[in-house]
Amino acid sequence: MRRDTLPGGATPAASATAHAPSGAHVLADLSGIAAEKLSNCAALETLLRDAAERAGACVLFSHFHGFGEGQGVTGVVLLAESHITIHTWPECGFAAADIFMCGSAQPELALALIKKALQPGAAHIHTSRRGPP
Q1: Could you tell me the EC number(s) of this protein (predicted)?
Q2: For a tag on the chain, would you pick the N or C end, based on fewer CB atoms within 10 A?
Q3: How far apart (Å, rounded) are the C-alpha atoms in residues 1 and 92?
Q4: What amino acid positions are annotated as catalytic residues?
Q5: Closest among 67, 83, 85 to 75, alpha carbons compared
Q6: Which neighbouring-strand residues pair with 71?
């Protein structure tokens, strides 16, 4: 990749123009999830990266950490548009997701994919608009 391009081929100048400093910040508390869906580090990383792409975001980097066999996972997907994070508690069937995207990215599409994959029994969603007044 050339140094003057971002993943996906966008140039830094084009990216700055395409990404306004305002966006949507979605917090999702997802409960009633099967424990095996909340302890697989690689599967959760793939899910969140796919969710970012579905939302029209540009993935820059991701890092996920599993806390051991059957234990939870914490992970972050860094985006040109901001981030997606997840923290899981398999023993409680609970996941907390945080999706912040600016510009034309659509965090609602990312959340829809995450919910489809994890199949929570209940979801409490809070969305805030972010940016200058």
Answers
A1: 4.1.1.50
A2: C
A3: 42
A4: 82, 87, 102
A5: 85
A6: none
